[in-house]
Amino acid sequence: MTLSKRRLGILSAQIIFCVVFLLLWQYVSVNKIIDPIFIGRPSKILHYLYDSIFVSGTLFSDAGWTLSATAISFLLGSVAGIVFGLIFSVWPLAEEFCDPFFTAFNALPRIALAPLFILWFGLGTGSKVALGFSLTFFIVLSNTVAGARSADPDWLILVRMLGATRAQTFFKVTLISAVPTIFSGLRLGLIYSLLGVVGSEIIASQNGLGQKLSYLAGTFNTDGVFGVLFFLSILGVALTWAMGLLEKYLLRWR
Amino acid sequence: MLHESAVGGVAPSVNDGAICMEHVSHLFPGGTRALDDVSIRVGSGEFTSIVGPSGCGKTTALNLIAGLVTGQSGRISVAGRPPKAGRHDVAYMLARDSLFPWRTAMGNVMLSGEFRGVSRGDQESIAREFLGKVGLAGFENSYPKALSHGMRQRVALARTFSMKSSILLMDEPFGALDAQTKMQLEDVLLKLYSSEQRSVLFITHDLNEAVTLSDRVIVMSARPGRILADIPIDLPRPRSVRALQKDPHYHEIYAEVWSWLEQALLGNEVI
Fold this sequence. Notes:
Chain A is mainly α. Chain A contains eleven helices and no strands. At the A-B interface, helix 8 and helix 9 of A face strand 5 and helix 2 of B.
């Protein structure tokens, strides 16, 4: 793969920016222009990351808890969202009935439910999954409904004239034409699963990156906090990237 | 119900021809009169066009015959039976190609066979045959996004003809194309029609197109649609779009149809 000149220029500018930024940060911190208790120190953050990844490995075990909870809540939330969305598109009466309840629930700031979930499901994976699910479900649901409605009316006339049954129309037209919209819901839903899980961990949990974050902040280990934040952001990027690859493969006709 | 066994075959009743519409009137749900006492007959193997000002109800007439719209007064028979959407002896083509973007050209043509119980092997060979006939050999595995407007409508033509339905209903199939592409596709249609012998009812607002393609041109008035004229087009077949442009008789017929259409348009102005 060859990089174009323009791309190469941007990339090197970005790298230079990062290096300068980190050096400046280091300088400000070492000379205590801003107290390191607030901003940490890049060299120490790097040391923390190295230590907790390669020496003690604690970051990985916490990441494992967070990721597994994210995966479960994403899977449950998106499957439920797609199923309900499709039921709504085939059976509008169901949507009319559920709409006010779903709207009310969706309007609720979901993080406010965390104490209740912790009460119900304890400090383990259950409460994190519940919160992640409650976010992902509605995002995927609304995208599925929108996608199923986006089928071109001409397509529906065409298959009707071809003599398609209702089931054929659903599987060969409605469902497939909804896939691109469902996917943009899934991409967003994945990030919200992570948000719900980490949020729930911060509030109260036995393990996970969120719990680690809140512990480090509580003990004024600012370097550790920044380390975990970097790690989380890389995790988020990796998840979105993997999702993008899958989407590109499944929607190669676009 | 007398001719239940004639699915996919030629019109069983000589008098009714392929399509017969007798004294049909139709009101839109709002109460606007769309069609007023319209009678149309399309003989077996005949190519008939309907022209008229926009909003004259020509598409409504087609949709009544297709069985997409119901609730008329009068009598309609399609191959001797009442109209019904999804009949295997009727094929329908729209102005837009309405190809599925997630299917290749082949997949789109095979679609018709899938819903009509054709075996997978037959679907493939039929699709390949008709893609060749519309000049798209070599594009079997292209997705619609990679095809031009005209090529996509060629795929739609292949899909329509691959159904082997004896009756074709076409609603301005070339209405969205530019002039040159349109002429090319008219030639493709002329070729397909002469090799396949189907009964065609063709809706258009383009007089050139109607005269070029048809055995008969029916002129409808502005709403409520009535039949103003039914003009036989006695140009010999096989025809070609370019040769016809140089044929004086073609221009005579064109002038005649145009004078009728002018009357229809004037009627529109009075309203």
